[in-house]
Design brief:
The strands form two sheets. Strands 2-3-1-4 form a four-stranded antiparallel sheet, covered by helices on one side. The chain is flat. The chain has ten helices and seven strands. The chain has 221 residues and is of the alpha+beta class.
Length: 221
């Protein structure tokens, strides 16, 4: 976003793509065909086949398995290459099935949205209806955070409203549980260190203080 601002200012558009039910929709045959092209020995490939085909009826990967995380990242490699090498999109990021493209104008954004969607569908997947084109000035939500540009080109990262609500409710429950534990200060410090480690990634000082207040614990960030 900072590099884009230097070239185009606040003019630009995000293409936000999300795949409908990604893990349950990954096709086994298509995945194994992609893996077969990798430089791996037969013994390793046979083991991968057993892992992939042990779940579902020709489609889907189990959530939570470490192997599933690797396969899910790899499955869309062809889409990554299409976006970077053929569409020549400079500013692109993907985490699993969440994709963000940053483009200089709306026409290019619409074209990339259409072509990327077609490429995704070629891999037997469907784009979620919540996929959209968003003006750069409105900011974008990604992985629980909201990113937007200031007038000077600084990137402001704040916790997404739904994420903040979820974190606050969990912290509220945890603080209630710890009140029932004797000498809980050490545990409280550990819990707050976890929240601080996450929230410290963005501009969330005030929200962190609200979480700290739940624990009735005076801690400096």
């Amino acid at each position: 976003m900072r590099e884009h601002f230097k070239l185009y200012g606040a003019t630009g558009y995000f293409v936000k793509l999300d795949i409908r039910k990604y893990f349950p929709s990954i096709n086994h045959s298509n995945l194994l065909q992609k893996i077969s092209k990798l430089p791996i020995d037969k013994r390793t490939y046979d083991l991968i086949v057993k892992i992939v085909t042990s779940y579902g009826d020709g489609v889907g990967l189990p959530m939570g398995n470490q192997s599933s995380q690797c396969f899910a990242l790899f499955y869309l490699d062809v889409v990554d290459r299409f976006i970077k090498e053929q569409l020549r999109v400079k500013y692109y990021v993907r985490y699993m099935d969440d994709m963000i493209l940053l483009l200089p104008d709306k026409k290019t954004a619409q074209q990339c949205f259409t072509l990327a969607t077609e490429q995704i569908e070629k891999n037997l997947l469907l784009v979620n209806k919540k996929s959209q084109i968003v003006a750069l000035k409105n900011g974008i939500e990604f992985l629980g955070w909201r990113f937007r540009l200031s007038k000077t080109g600084k990137v402001c990262q704040t916790i997404r409203h739904s994420s903040a609500k979820r974190i606050y409710e969990k912290a509220k429950l945890k603080s209630w549980q710890l009140r029932r534990v004797k000498k809980a200060n050490e545990k409280v410090r550990e819990v707050l260190a976890c929240y601080n480690g996450h929230l410290n990634k963005g501009n969330s000082h005030n929200f962190y203080n609200k979480v700290v207040h739940l624990f009735k614990y005076k801690a400096k960030r």
